[in-house]
């Protein structure tokens, strides 16, 4: 058996723990999301995203020239999408995130067109997730809207409580004014 065959078999035989642990903020192979103060109360589908390495550490483009590692901006994740990484080896996956970190660590943050969703899209493009290289901030947003899971009932309430209060205030003002 050649050394390359042995190495490939060892890599294939490695078992990576994909267990999500919200209490420790560990989300292996996931995109994570949390509400943005004030903005999510008005538009509950808008929030902050990050992408997690194979060992579950969150990386997020948190502001101008700054990518946060293991310190998710705006609080703990309230929902996550575990990625189907079949066909992507762990090294490529993690290096793709590091590459996106390096790029966005040198860029200005803009909430409308160069933001945390763009950072996640760049990492997905680098790893050719699902064989694609055309991930955008909108496609990342859409995947989170339709495929993500809440970490708990409390996380669901945290996401929508502000919006429900705003709606209630608007209704009460409409009735009494």
List keywords for this structure.
177 residues, six-stranded antiparallel sheet, globular, 16% strand, 6 helices, alpha+beta
Structure overview:
This protein starts with a helix and ends with a helix. Strands 4-3-2-1-5-6 form a six-stranded antiparallel sheet. It is globular, with a radius of gyration of 18 Å. The chain is 44% helix and 16% strand. It has six helices and six strands, in the order H-E-H-E-E-E-E-H-H-H-E-H. It has helices spanning 3-13, 39-42, 90-104, 116-127, 137-147, 153-176; strands at 30-35, 47-52, 58-63, 66-69, 79-82, 149-150. Helix 3 (90-104) packs antiparallel against helix 4 and helix 4 packs across helix 5 (137-147).
Topology:
Blueprint: H1 3-13, E1 30-35, H2 39-42, E2 47-52, E3 58-63, E4 66-69, E5 79-82, H3 90-104, H4 116-127, H5 137-147, E6 149-150, H6 153-176
Antiparallel strand pairs: 1-2, 1-5, 2-3, 3-4, 5-6
Helix pairs in contact: 3-4, 4-5
């Amino acid at each position: 058996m050649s050394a390359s065959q042995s190495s490939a078999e060892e890599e294939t035989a490695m078992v990576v723990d994909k267990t999500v642990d919200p209490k420790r903020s560990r989300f292996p192979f996931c995109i994570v999301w949390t509400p943005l103060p004030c903005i999510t109360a008005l538009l509950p589908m808008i929030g902050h995203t990050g992408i997690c390495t194979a060992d579950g550490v969150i990386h997020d483009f948190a502001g101008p020239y700054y990518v946060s590692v293991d310190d998710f901006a705006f609080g703990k994740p309230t929902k996550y999408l575990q990625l189907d990484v079949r066909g992507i080896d762990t090294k490529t996956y993690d290096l793709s995130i590091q590459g996106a970190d390096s790029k966005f660590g040198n860029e200005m943050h803009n909430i409308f067109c160069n933001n945390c969703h763009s950072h996640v899209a760049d990492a997905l493009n680098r790893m050719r997730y699902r064989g694609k290289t055309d991930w955008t901030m909108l496609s990342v947003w859409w995947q989170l809207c339709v495929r993500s899971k809440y970490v708990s009932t409390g996380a669901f309430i945290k996401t929508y409580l502000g919006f429900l209060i705003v709606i209630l205030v608007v209704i009460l003002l409409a009735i009494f004014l």
